[in-house]
Design a protein that fits this description.
Order of helices and strands: HEEEHEEEE
Number of helices: 2
Structural class: alpha+beta
Strand order of the largest sheet: 2-1-7-4-5
CATH topology of the largest domain: Ubiquitin-like (UB roll)
Number of strands: 7
CATH architecture of the largest domain: Roll
Shape: elongated
Distance between the termini: 78 Å
Strand content: 25-35%
Largest sheet: 5 strands, mixed
């Protein structure tokens, strides 16, 4: 192999590695469970995640509610801070947070 071909091959490998680095938390060989919170990709290391861990992962305030998106016409499920959700490597669970309705009175 001549030097030019070797350099081209190295440059190609560098481009591939840069693409992997730029992908947020979804590198294919990374261990863990893939989740989405507020349309951002994360990888959680454990099979179980709690509502408070979801808030912490996304940087949401403690006064936010966490919901699990339900596909189809179902109503999204609110997740309590201490509630445990089982993650599955065969699917990506989608969560979102929203400020709690606080009324003064």
């Amino acid at each position: 192999m001549n030097i030019k071909l070797e350099i081209q091959e190295l440059e190609r490998k560098i481009r591939e590695l840069k693409k992997q680095i730029d992908e947020p938390c979804f590198i294919s060989n990374r261990e863990g469970y893939k989740i989405k919170i507020n349309n951002k990709n994360y990888t959680h290391p454990n099979k179980i995640i709690t509502g408070s861990e979801i808030k912490t992962t996304d940087g949401a305030l403690s006064k936010h509610a966490v919901f699990l998106k339900i596909r189809g016409w179902g109503q999204d499920k609110q997740i309590a801070d201490n509630e445990q959700i089982e993650l599955d490597k065969s699917e990506i669970k989608h969560f979102f947070t929203t400020p709690l309705n606080i009324t003064e009175g």
